[in-house]
Write a structure and sequence with these properties.
5-stranded mixed sheet, 164 residues, 55% helix, two-stranded antiparallel ribbon, alpha+beta, single chain, 4 helices, rod-shaped
């Protein structure tokens, strides 16, 4: 990741939005930063709002190694400064809810696999207890038993990967 931070400045309104560092792998800026939450927005929400609020205004992108960078950050108005912590908090809450939903879905999937495993074991037990009347039927039952056992092992592997 680039170590240079950037601000987009509107000289006309004496405002700026902080883009922070540019991630060249993902081709995105870190976005605004909330000191309260110690987190970046990692989206272009404030950049888009800044651009729309400054249509037809001359804008300038300043890197942190530019001599005017510190002057702008300390004397100009940060665009929607009061909205940043609330927005970041909302984004963090959404991320936590997404992760929770994913955990619930994983748990449900694990439960479904365990139920399927028990059903397969029951079928296997029925096959093992079924008498055979011929050598051919014995081979079919052995094949079914193996298939059920193999299915149980596959489910066990999937469940273990889900937990790990």
């Amino acid at each position: 990741m680039d170590t240079t931070s950037y601000v987009l400045v509107c000289e006309r309104d004496k405002t700026f939005t902080s883009l922070h560092r540019f991630d060249r792998k993902r081709n995105v800026f870190e976005g605004e930063y909330s000191l309260l939450h110690n987190a970046y927005s990692y989206d272009q929400y404030f950049l888009a709002r800044f651009l729309m609020a400054h249509v037809e205004h001359p804008l300038r992108l300043l890197p942190s190694d530019n001599e005017r960078y510190d002057e702008v950050v300390h004397t100009y108005q940060r665009f929607q400064e009061d909205d940043i912590p609330a927005y970041i908090e909302e984004k963090l809450q959404e991320r936590a809810e997404r992760e929770h939903r994913l955990d619930v879905e994983r748990s449900l999937g694990q439960l479904q696999l365990i139920i399927a495993r028990q059903m397969i074991l029951k079928e296997r037990e029925e096959v093992q207890n079924r008498p055979s009347r011929s050598e051919r039927e014995t081979l079919v039952l052995i094949g079914q038993d193996y298939a059920f056992l193999r299915s149980v092992h596959i489910i066990d592997d999937i469940v273990a990967q889900g937990r790990g």
